[in-house]
Specification:
Layout: H1 3-19, H2 21-24, H3 31-39, E1 60-63, E2 66-68, H4 71-80, E3 88-92, H5 98-106, E4 109-114, H6 117-129, E5 135-139, E6 152-157, H7 166-170, E7 172-183, E8 189-196, E9 202-210, H8 225-229
Parallel strand pairs: 3-4, 3-6, 4-5, 6-7
Antiparallel strand pairs: 1-2, 7-8, 8-9
This protein binds S-adenosyl-L-homocysteine.
S-adenosyl-L-homocysteine binds next to strand 2, helix 5 and strand 4.
Length: 233
């Protein structure tokens, strides 16, 4: 990547943050998040044929009908998660592994779940190549979360869910946040911040309109479920 490409992407993110300041409630994202964005070479997570789009502020296809999210959205969601360096976080929808790499820069340990096995394998290879050793990826259904490592200091869902999966609420530490796009596939979706209060109640806040690929429902029975999809990779 050239310094100029990265500089352009960072200033495009800053510009869009300013444009949406009334919705997101701030005119700039945290320095920690912007530093993480600056560190991660986005082109390593994008097919070679689409290299020229790697540092543009838009989503890019990554195969299997999926996309790597727009850099502004990755930065915003990372900011909304409000992480500390000691945190353990869960991501649902590994995709290319780019968001996981950003989180890897921000927290102690990242767990990420991807339903498409080939994408999970590719994401692991990308992260290993770049030396990110605090990310563990498994192929499986994110609707179920990853109970073994719960509770999480934050959970980020990067696919649109029709409703908040109960397992994710259950696996959230008290006081922690879940950042999730809610809504029907390919129609109006709202990016939400969900906070688990000490009394067990959840508080939700709408941030802005977004467009994500759907969080798929995986049938609870059937050969592909427990036997292979849920195995750690
Ligand atoms: N965070 C990714 C982009 C995610 S695109 C990145 O940085 O590149 C959304 C991803 O969610 C897709 O890869 C899709 O396969 C995955 N997904 C959809 N439904 C899922 C589910 N139920 N469990 C886990 N992953 C799911």
């Amino acid at each position: 990547m050239t310094m100029r490409e990265m500089q352009q992407m960072l200033s495009d993110i800053e510009w869009e943050v300013k444009l949406t300041r009334n919705m997101i409630g701030k005119a700039a994202l945290s320095d920690r998040v912007m530093a993480a964005i600056r560190h991660v070479p986005r082109h390593k997570f994008i097919p070679d044929a689409l290299r020229e789009y790697a540092y543009q502020n838009g989503p890019v296809p990554i195969g299997f009908g999926q996309t790597i999210s727009q850099p502004y959205i990755v930065a915003l969601m990372s900011d909304l998660l409000n992480t500390k360096p000691s945190d353990v976080v869960l991501e649902i929808g590994t995709g290319s592994g780019y968001q996981a790499a950003i989180l890897s820069e921000l927290v102690r340990q990242v767990y990420s779940i991807e339903v498409i096995e080939d994408l999970a394998t590719m994401a692991r290879a990308h992260l290993r190549e770049l030396g990110y050793s605090n990310v563990e990826i498994r192929a499986g259904d994110g609707n179920l979360g990853w109970p073994e490592h719960a509770p999480y200091d934050g959970i980020i869902v990067t696919a649109a869910a029709p409703h908040i999966p109960q397992a994710l609420i259950d696996q959230l530490r008290t006081g922690a946040r879940l950042v999730i796009p809610l809504g029907q596939p390919y129609s109006a979706q709202e990016l939400m911040v969900v906070e688990k209060k000490p009394d067990g109640e959840i508080e939700t806040r709408e941030i802005l309109d977004v467009a994500f690929v759907p969080l798929v429902e995986v049938p609870r029975s059937g050969a592909s479920h427990k036997s292979d999809r849920q195995n750690p990779m």
